[in-house]
Amino acid sequence: MSDPLLSVRHLCKAYGALKVTDDLSLDVATGELHAIIGPNGAGKTTLISQLSGQLRPDSGRIDYGGRDITRLKMHERVRHGMARSFQITSILPGFTVLENVAMAVQARSGSSFRFFGAAARERVLNDAAMDALAEVGLDDRAHRIAGPMSHGEHRQLEIAVALATKPRLLLLDEPLAGTGGEEAENLVALFRKLKARTTLVLIEHDMQVVFALADRISVLVYGRIVASGTPDEIRSDPAVREAYLGEETT
Which domains does the chain have, with CATH numbers? Predict the structure, then answer.
């Protein structure tokens, strides 16, 4: 692998005697979709929270783009091109779809608006927000109030909010949770499209989706990476199959 976009070394996070992240090291290459899988309680969301800056590790180091970001706050990481879907901002149900995304553009650009409601009326913010909505397939719903939309549309909107910050690295924490059928298919198609221009770290329980999309997969068990490799390497690893996969990928 060439120099990774994201490099994690000896990351640790504990709550009392419980080690949630246990001396974890991980590399994510520029341009790849890197999936992180593991059983419930393995520490996947805790890891994503540390990568995004939402949660500070007890020890270890996180390098992003060749820079130590271990102590940077979440909004500082966003400005450096790292985004986490569903965590950058909450969906505001009383605002329109466009206003939700325009506020993310506003935050990224450092606009001095004092009131959120003004964001979508600024042409530059409006145009950038529409571009993000078009990418996720919600541009025709731009002026709808966000609250009444379907769960799958909320997922799409949350991803549009993340994309509006122009990320080089997008962290996706179970983006298909609660979706099914056409809504899940639409999200999978979106991730395929995003792979062409954005580095992605994906946590997802649907193994069919993971093995269809991922360039590389890391298996997390009890806070440690126990295996990393291509989908074929992970699928054929006897220890991984015994510990986690079972018959899920056959």
Answer: 1-81+167-250 (3.40.50.300), 91-166 (no CATH)
